[in-house]
């Protein structure tokens, strides 16, 4: 009796009623009744309270393997209930193509930040929408014209040569190396020279790097590592809350600003680093462009003394050897023809004016993120696969030898090496750095018999598609012959079943650049070395955070190749 009286007394208190009401609302919210109702016709895994499909992703070590497992159970189209939004997932080549061609928008993840930080997230080509996206894409495009790519091939070759120097030294000393890390140094150097026209000295074999790597490069590398390696959903307690309760976003934002934890501070520091470097270079270059328009073409600020003047906006003008002879003085400042230079000369079609400094810095941020680790990872995976498939490696080495072990490739030469391209494509199939391609439906569409509403989040499970035996013959095998026309393997390749770069108007704009860089690097390495995996590297452990990467690097022994037999 006393207990009942006590309970009655408690219920009479408005605070307790409020608390119970709040707990009931959170409980109901965690059941996600609206999501379940909207997607009731779709198959899919049972959703945990509040976390939705989150525990499944954790169980499989990341989204790529979780999607693969679910596609095998629920078929080519299924729904994942979860945070911040439910998602329709497919790994079916035709349906994925339809998704990517019909939905040209990426959904916006809830942001933890305000003001300028928010602008930083929204104002780049990856996040932009509609006319703004078209305008940015048009401004990016000249970077990937053949003339630009031809000029970049010189810089890519030089970066590969510095890597060769490092590897030769390691081979001589009998030291094994983390080839993933060294490839990252190389791709960062290429980003530095092509995006800015600035030599960052990331590579140990760089004989001009007497004072060690450039401080900007170190900051950028650390920043890129942070921005890429963190899980966007869990890097801070506030992001976890934001993703679980997007409904309370304004409150979570306020709390994160008032009480930033280590994750928030790390993320802000990384963004700040990229913005600082990019904005400083932009400001320097604005001054140079102002002088440039007032007078005859001049050198950019701090450019190599005595270097010839470079015509404005001409990518061909990008200096070989990063504006210096090897061992000579170093070019500083933004080079004409570099990505930054091209962007700063471009007009924003939505305003008719040039892009703001922050907008330019934002694009450079994307260029660093998109261009640094994706290509390094693709190359590391190719190295792993070639080391574990000696017959394929021998065939590749034969093609490389026929090309010439001392020959420096031009952009045009790369078309003459079909097996090299096939090896890279097959690596990108087995280990697509971007395992999942995300879009948002902009119109009603029908997907495999299911109706999809506008606003619905969509995901192409590229990793799962690439390894699905329903579409690929012997999907786990490394068979570059799949991309060699006229072979039985090529005849069995599913149409639209290879999507490491996406499809449609949001497909990877850097595809040609990435393949060019990867081909040059792999060719130059194969001219000089083979690689043996150190014990414990096989089977390869992969990290599935934002992108797929070898977990803990890839440790190899560098074996110099013997003399080329006389023809
Ligand atoms: C092996 C290397 C790379 C891979 C696997 C890769 C993959 C991808 C994928 C899957 C997408 C999304 C496509 C879609 O939604 O349909 C993408 C977008 C993008 N990538 Fe790459 N990428 C690579 C290298 C690069 C490089 C080197 C750059 C820049 C030089 C770059 C710049 C971009 C940009 C700007 C976008 C967004 C395009 C837009 O929304 O219009 N990527 N990439």
TrEMBL record:
Residues 292-331 are annotated as: Disordered. GO terms for molecular function: heme binding; iron ion binding; monooxygenase activity; oxidoreductase activity, acting on paired donors, with incorporation or reduction of molecular oxygen. Residues 313-331 have a biased composition (Low complexity). The chain crosses the membrane at residues 12-31, 235-256. Its cofactor is heme. The keyword Transmembrane helix applies. Residues 298-312 have a biased composition (Pro residues). InterPro entries: Cyt_P450 (IPR001128), Cyt_P450_CS (IPR017972), Cyt_P450_E_grp-I (IPR002401), Cyt_P450_sf (IPR036396). This is Cytochrome P450. It comes from Elliptochloris bilobata.
